[in-house]
Design brief:
The chain is mostly helical. Among the domains are: 55-123; 143-214. 79% of the residues lie in helices and 0% in strands. It has helices spanning 2-23, 25-65, 72-83, 90-100, 107-120, 125-139, 145-156, 163-176, 180-192, 198-211. α6 packs antiparallel against α7 (145-156). It is flat.
């Protein structure tokens, strides 16, 4: 008797499953198709990204290798276009090459390219903070106090690994302006950081002891 009941239950269950697939055939096919298209689309997009990165790498290498032999303006144009590609690796490298080789004299043009990276390029948070710091460092010789603080505020108000660097830049900026009280305040903030860069902490303590002690 029990075996018969089990057989009947099994047949009923199988029938229900069969009917489910029959009644929902179109929906199941549609869902499967959508899933398949999504998977193919994802891997296709990743493949496009990889190919694009390889293409930009080749372009960057070619431009920098031919830097000395080709026309200067051509190098500037090609590297500027690379920055505007908004690629996480080669766009920053292109801007650094422009700066390191002093190819663009106009500071506003450089700042526009910095903003292109910071505002338009999808970057890891700490890479973005590094670029913000580099922008402030580039501007530190001619920017006003408010401009420099505004640039560095996103780092100073965070727990970034670049926070000590940002505070040190501001502290040295005020020291160069002979504003020793403000300078000491920022050096002192560095010493209070729990995870601050050890070398920067040492340099800050040395600066306070040697030049800012009362």
């Amino acid at each position: 008797m029990d075996e018969e009941i089990l057989i009947i239950d099994s047949k009923t269950r199988n029938e229900k499953i069969k009917n489910f697939f029959i009644n929902n055939k179109k929906k199941l096919v549609a869902c499967t198709s959508i899933l398949l298209v999504s998977v193919i689309g994802y891997f296709s997009l990743e493949e496009i990204k990889i190919r694009n990165k390889i293409k930009l790498a080749e372009k960057f290498n070619l431009v920098t290798i031919n830097f000395q032999s080709q026309e200067k303006q051509k190098t500037i144009n090609e590297l500027t276009n690379l920055v505007k590609e908004n690629e996480a690796t080669y766009s920053p490298l292109a801007l650094y090459f422009l700066i390191d080789n002093n190819l663009i004299k106009n500071k506003n043009e450089i700042n526009i390219l910095f903003d292109e990276l910071i505002d338009e390029t999808k970057l890891d948070e700490e890479i973005k903070n590094l670029i913000i710091y580099k922008k402030a460092l580039f501007n530190s010789d001619f920017a006003s106090e408010n401009e420099l603080l505004q640039m560095l505020n996103p780092i100073i108000n965070s727990e970034s690994i670049w926070k000590a660097h940002a505070l040190y830049l501001i502290a040295e900026y005020f020291y160069s302006k002979n504003e020793k009280k403000k300078s000491k305040e920022f050096f002192s903030q560095i010493l209070l950081l729990r995870n601050g860069n050890i070398e920067i902490k040492k340099k800050s303590q040395k600066r306070i002891n040697r030049d800012l002690s009362e």
